[in-house]
Write a structure and sequence with these properties.
By secondary structure, the protein is of the alpha+beta class. It has one domain: Porin, CATH 2.40.160.20. The protein is built from three helices and nine strands, in the order ααββββββββαβ. The chain has an eight-stranded antiparallel beta barrel. It is elongated and about 45 Å long.
Length: about 190
């Protein structure tokens, strides 16, 4: 009974965060390219929209089955209007049993030209594990990040999120809160 209640509350939290990410990402189109334009930085124009590539090296700290674990990963993609990233990412656990996952990544930078700025990121995909069993799983991982603009092409980020995993074995052992540090390289 307690487990079913915990799963329902966890599901509600994940759906709330996923909805917030969707609403935030829809607001990307509300700003015209002229409003997002920064005269001091070089631009790449594709159909009148500022765009370019971004890649991030990401280190996550999380709990799995009551133990502290570390995940290393990389994500990146195409950055539109210096605000909206659409791409992919992949992560793997560096300690103990093998757990890896990856998928589609969407990230929205709320005010990318500020020295310290906020973004919301989401990953939807799948993965697999060998934690006592071989099992594929579905993963949904929303995050909120705080980034420091170090140069025009590099940012240092700190954030947190929740890794929601659905598998046929033990969802609670693999799902959990995470904190991360990342370094982003791109064309802002």
């Amino acid at each position: 009974m307690v487990r079913a209640t915990t799963q329902r509350h966890g599901c509600a939290r994940v759906l709330f965060v996923a909805g917030a990410l969707l609403v935030t990402s829809l607001s990307v189109g509300a700003q015209t390219p002229d409003e997002a334009k920064d005269e001091s930085k070089p631009e790449v124009l594709v159909n009148g929209v500022d765009s370019g590539a971004m890649i991030a090296l990401d280190n996550k700290f999380s709990e799995i089955g009551g133990r502290f674990e570390n995940f290393l990963g990389v994500y990146g993609g195409w950055l539109v209007n210096k605000r909206f990233l659409l791409g992919g990412g992949i992560y793997g656990k560096t300690t103990g049993a093998t757990i890896g996952y990856g998928g589609l990544v969407v990230e929205y930078f709320i005010d990318p030209n500020r020295l310290v700025n906020v973004s919301v990121k989401g990953l939807v995909g799948g993965g697999g594990t060998t934690v006592g069993w071989n099992d594929p799983f579905f993963v949904l991982e929303p995050e909120v990040k705080l980034s420091l603009n170090i140069t025009d092409w590099m940012r240092l980020g700190f954030g947190g999120g929740y890794r929601y995993i659905r598998s046929s074995f033990d969802n609670d052992a693999l799902s959990g809160l995470s904190a991360n540090i990342d370094v982003k390289f791109g064309t802002w």
